[in-house]
Amino acid sequence: MDFIITRMAISPFTAFILIPTVIPFSKAALTTHYYHQTCPQAESIIYQTVRNASLYDPKVPARLLRMFFHDCFIRGCDASLLLDSTPGNKAEKDGPPNISVRSFYVIEDAKAKIEKACPHTVSCADVLAIAARDVVAMSQGPWWPVLKGRKDGRVSKANETINLPSPFSNATTLIQSFAKRGLNVKDLVTLSGGHTLGFSHCSSFSTRIHNSTDPTLNSEFAMNLKKKCPLQNKDRNAGEFLDSTSSKFDNDYYKRITMGEGVFGSDQALYGDDRTKGIVDSYAKDEKLFFK
Known about the structure:
Layout: E1 3-6, E2 21-24, H1 42-56, H2 60-75, H3 104-117, H4 124-138, H5 171-179, H6 185-192, E3 199-201, H7 219-228, E4 239-241, H8 252-258, H9 265-269, H10 274-285, H11 287-291
Antiparallel strand pairs: 1-2, 3-4
């Protein structure tokens, strides 16, 4: 099947709008009013569901944002990440990078409520896209009108998750990976800003702090990471927040990178490459620029 990558130009915020939305050529373009006649209460239902879940569990916003990115990066924003494995197929959900993706129940709950109100109308792909927008806005980030009309994917393969960006990747690998999806260097740096929300377990950065310390790490920050994640770590929950305001969607992630405090090697790599360094500096200095 032939595909095109469409972008939402109407949003004030680039970071999650620039994730490619892959749709067949034969399908109509996405629109903000896709459900205005058939399910006008859809966005309200999703918002209330996500809000209640986030109040109960503050980890939900970061988890849903990560879920959305992991879904979009493989086959476009088609909710194929939500599909369960079958005896004959291991799905994306069970691919190694997605084992730690959590809070699927929030999307399932929102979808169930929508089905009661508007049966067989709203796609899971749109539910996830709207939920991702809502968690950003709830976390004091920008709000944008979500283009809707996505169709749910029916193909989900765990082996394709190898294409997800790794926390160990260098800048060149990241740039090439994003380019394959029609995304440029600025898109890469902007999308990486999603790490402003969230937490990482030690396994995703321990190689940077043990044996030989990664020279791109701020030395004091490296020592703090070693204390939280000792070489013989037995605490499976140990780790570090990805920025110092981890429940707020802001530009602190970029500020930390400029100080050598990027948690992932892939984050800090953005400041060690001339193709991305200037964009990081710009976002660190101007939050409004990041939100545009």
